[in-house]
Design goal:
Layout: H1 22-31, H2 33-49
Length: 72
């Protein structure tokens, strides 16, 4: 059975005026590139779900204009 890493907790306290992005950067770096990609893709899916055409715009286009054999 695969080992599931325990969840981690990151907290930051302070005034909003005094905070920078260092906490956010440390949080996402700790999660790793796979989690960053998954979160980014989920934002893309959410954004396209509200547009005309919806999620179908995210599909690969399957139209072909023409094929022509090159001679030479």
């Amino acid at each position: 059975m695969p080992q599931i890493p325990p969840p981690f907790i990151m907290e930051r306290y302070g005034r909003l005026k005094e905070m920078d992005r260092s906490f956010d950067i440390a949080y996402w770096q700790r999660l790793g590139s796979e989690a960053i990609f998954e979160a980014a893709w989920q934002m893309v899916v959410d954004a396209h779900g509200h547009r005309p055409g919806g999620l179908n715009e995210l599909r690969l286009r399957r139209t072909v204009k023409n094929f022509q054999r090159q001679r030479g």
